[in-house]
Structures are given as structure tokens and as C-alpha cells.
Specification:
heterodimer; A: mainly beta; seven-stranded mixed β-sheet; four-stranded antiparallel β-sheet; 11 strands; B: mainly beta
Amino acid sequence: QTVVTQEPSFSVSPGGTVTLTCGLSSGSVSTTYLPSWYQQTPGQTPRTLIYSTNTRSSGVPDRFSGSILGNKAALTITGAQADDESDYYCVLYMGSGIWVFGGGTKLTVL
Amino acid sequence: QLQLQESGPGLVKSSETLSLTCSVSGGSISGSSYYWGWIRQSPGKGLEWIGSIHYSGSTYYNPSLKSRVVISVDTSKKQFSLKLSSVSAADTAVFYCARHIGGYSGGFGYWGQGTQVTVSS
């Protein structure tokens, strides 16, 4: 069974830029996997940031952007702020109606 | 503003069936491009897609849960439901209902606030 991989943790300095990735244990991620990204702080409902690779959800600032980088989907945050400190999840469409979430990346802003 | 609200028992006994309902307000449940899903999050763990349904009744399930899951929709009540049978402690989680965005292809765009379900022995 294919596993969706994410960095377990990442850190960024305030004002800095960070790129989180979403890959596959076997194979490459392309736009056909329809990657989407979610932000979640502890105890809160996930917030949709990006869907269909690079479409920002309503109200999401343009500091957040999605793309394909190499063989992975990527979420780039520019001008990191303290309240960007959260868990970030990606989900990929595997075909046949099946979605698989990555394990999440814990982002620290310090 | 579309709103989703989960409801159901917060405590289920081991080996029994977990039943949750998601009520939709502020929008239609029956749009041709509207797909509705269930996602869960075990304590301290990540998100897991359980399954999704179209208002027409077409369903898609996580293969690892497929033998125990049934998702249904009641358009007259603007609700869709989850049944998970033969539960164990491993099924203890926060359960979220959600609507896919941009048809089925857009991931999950709208989320309920989530409901905690604990499986007891």
C-alpha cells in the first residue's frame, strides 16, 4: 500500500520562507494526484489552505502557495508568522475514489 | 455560509456500531458536484479519510475500513451519516464531516467542528 510521506517536523524563522513537501513511498506526485493542504492547530478543526495543487481556498493569504516540486507536492509559506505554527497535512487522490492523508508536518516558528 | 454539524453518541461500547450524522445548513446537499465525506483523527495522530458519498448515493470507502463502514445520505433532511461496525479502542477518535471542494477532485473544503467518539470496553 502506497504511503503519503511528509516531513515530521520543520522549523522556520519569523519572516522566513519554508517549503513543506508531500511525497509517495513509491512513485512521484503529479497534478493528477490533486494534492490539497490543511492547517491544524491543537484542538481545532483543520483549515483548508490549498486544493487541486495550487488553488488557494477562500480567505487564505497569498503567503501560502502550492506547487509540484520535483517528484513531490509542495506547500510554501513566505513571510512566516507566529500563528503559522501548526500541523500541516496533505492529502492525495489515489484514483478509484480513494484519498490518502500524509502523516502531517509539525511546523515551529522560532 | 455553508455549515456542517456532526452529532451522535460520544461513547460507544466495544464491538458495537458507531453511528454519526452530519447536518448541512446554509447550502444545498444535492448539488451535482457536491460530495460529502468523513474523516477521523485518533488522539495525537494524523487525519484519516474514512469515505465519501455523492448526494445520488454513490459511495467511496477507505479500503482499510471498507468492510466495516457504511455512509448514507438523506437529502430530505439535508443529512449524511456514518456507520462503523465492530468498533474497538483503536476507533476512538474525533470524527469530522466535510464537503469536497470543486467536485470530488478538490479535497475537503468545508469542515464540521468535529465530534469526539470514545470506544469503551
